Amino acid sequence: MWVSLTCRVTFLCLAAIYSTTSFGQTLSPSDQVVLNLDAAVARTLQSNPGLIAFGYQIYAQQGRLQQSELKPNLQLGILVENAVGSGDFQGIDGAETTLSLAWVLERGKRERRIDAARAGVSLVESEAEIQRLDAAAETARAYLDTLALQERLVRTDNAVTLAEQTAEAVQKRVQAGRTPEADLARAEAELARMQLDREDVEHELLTSHRRLAAQWGETQPGFTRVSGNVHQLPTPDTFAALLARIEQNPDLTRYLNEKRLREAELRLAEARAKPSWQLTAGVRRLERSDDQAFIAGITIPLTTRNRNQGQISEARARLAMTDADRVATRVQIETQLFALYQELQRSLHRTTTIREEILPRIEQALKDTERAYAAGRYGYFELRVVQAELLDTRTALVESSIDAHRRVIEIERLTGTTVTSSATHP
What we know:
Layout: H1 2-14, E1 34-35, H2 37-47, H3 49-68, E2 75-81, E3 96-105, H4 109-175, H5 181-214, E4 225-226, E5 233-236, H6 239-243, H7 250-272, E6 277-286, E7 291-299, H8 309-374, H9 380-415, E8 420-424
Parallel strand pairs: 1-4
Antiparallel strand pairs: 2-3, 3-6, 5-8, 6-7
C-alpha cells in the first residue's frame, strides 16, 4: 500500500513531465549514467536513512502490543502461622501452613489494553506512510531541481555561444575600422561573464546530484544526469475535482487512526476505573491434628475515592482534541490547495504567454537587430540590449515551467492523487 500511494504522489504527478531527452552535457553518451524518476523514488523507499530510522518506531509499538497481550502472572503464596511462639505454640507442632495460588481478574482491562496497543500500531503505520510520502515527494523535488539545473546549463551554454558569436562579429568590425575597440572589450567581458555563469551552474548541478543521491543514503552519486523535459507542461484537473480528493490526504487519514487510538484509550481508562479482583485458592495443613483443609478467598478493593476520574477526563479531552485538530487541518489543507492551484494556473499562463507571444517577438527582434548591426545602422549597445532581453526571456520561460511542476508536486502531496488528466507539449 505504501509503495503504490507513494508513487501516486511522485510518479503520477510528474509522469507527464519526465520523458527522456538530451541535455547537451560535455560527457559522451557512452559515459553518461541516466537516472529516471521511477528509479530515484524506488531507491528512496528502499534505503532512505530517515525511513529506516522511523521503522524502529513500528517495531517498538509492536512490542507494546505484544506486552499488552500478556496476562498477569499467578502468585504463589506460602503462609506459616502459630509457629515458634510460646506456650502451646512453641516449635512447629501447632503450626498451620497454607500453600495458595492467587490470580487477578482484570475485568476487561486486558482487552482494552490490546485495543489501545493495536490502535497505536495503526497510528504509527499511518505516520510511517506519511514519512514515506514525504520522502518520495522530497525526492521528486530534488529530482526536479536537478532537471532544472540541467536545463539552465543548456541555457548558459547557449548564452556562451551567443556571446562568442557576438565577440567574433565585433572583432571583425573593429578590424574593419567600423567599431571602436571599446565595444570589443565589452563583448569579451560579457563572454567572460557568461562563462562564469556556466561554471556556477555546473557546480550547482554537482551539488544537486549529491542532494538527490542523499535521499537514498548515498554520498557518491552513481549517475551523471536525470531524464526529463521541463517544457512538457501538465494540464491540471479542475479545482473542484482536486478539492473532492482532499479526504485522501494522508495527514487527514492519520487522524482517523488517531481517533481510534483515543477512543481505545478512553475505553481503557474507563475499564481501569473498575478495580481488579484477586482470587486465592490453596491448601492449609494443621500440624497439631495432622489434617488438611481447602481455602479460597477473593479480594475486592474499595474504590470510594479513586475511580480514575482524572484519566477518563484526560482521555475524553484528547479524543475531542483529535476531532478539532482534524477539522483545523482540513481547513488548512483546503486553503493551501486553493493557493497552490492559483499559483499553478498563473505559472501555466505565464509559461504559455512567454512561449507563444513574447519569445517569438524577441527572437525576431534579435534577427532584425543583428542585420541592422551588420549593416552599420545599430551599434553594439542596441545589439547587447536585445541579446539580454532574449536571454532573460528564455530564462523566464524555464523558470515558469519549473515553477509549474513544483506546484504540481505540492498539490499531489496535498491530495494524495494525480493532478493531471493529460499533458501538453509545445
